[in-house]
Design brief:
single chain, 120 residues, alpha+beta, Aspartate Aminotransferase, domain 1, six-stranded antiparallel β-sheet, 4 helices, 33% helix, globular
């Protein structure tokens, strides 16, 4: 996946916003909270996303994946896809979509309703 494809995928998820920050990284948010970051590493395109505790345990030692710099060192469950083999594009999209869901579930019910993420 390249950054153009990453941005198009994140843009298609519900109630997302985009900003370039942290050294020209592509930062995607839902309800003002980050759920995915494109960039933030040297070399290959890299993608950082929030995961469940179980997914973190499964992914943290996989080739091409690692606990996300800065975030994981603070006890947060974020993984960075930074090199090959890493995840397939479909696998990466699935984890980004899950990250969007995890982050959106952390928003208040009122905010979820405002964003159209909570069915009345």
């Amino acid at each position: 996946m390249n950054y153009k494809q990453f941005n198009a995928f994140c843009k298609a998820l519900p109630a997302t916003t985009y900003v370039m920050q942290w050294g020209d990284s592509h930062v995607w948010k839902v309800g003002g909270k980050v759920f995915a970051i494109g960039g933030w590493a040297d070399g290959e395109p890299s993608f950082t996303f929030k995961v469940s505790d179980f997914s973190y345990d499964v992914l943290e030692d996989q080739p091409g994946l690692r606990p996300a710099p800065y975030l994981a060192s603070r006890g947060l469950k974020w993984i960075q896809h930074y090199a090959k083999p890493g995840l397939s594009d479909d696998g990466l999209k699935s984890y980004i979509k899950q990250s969007h869901f995890i982050v959106s579930q952390g928003l208040s019910k009122k905010k979820q309703r405002e964003l159209g993420l909570l069915v009345p």
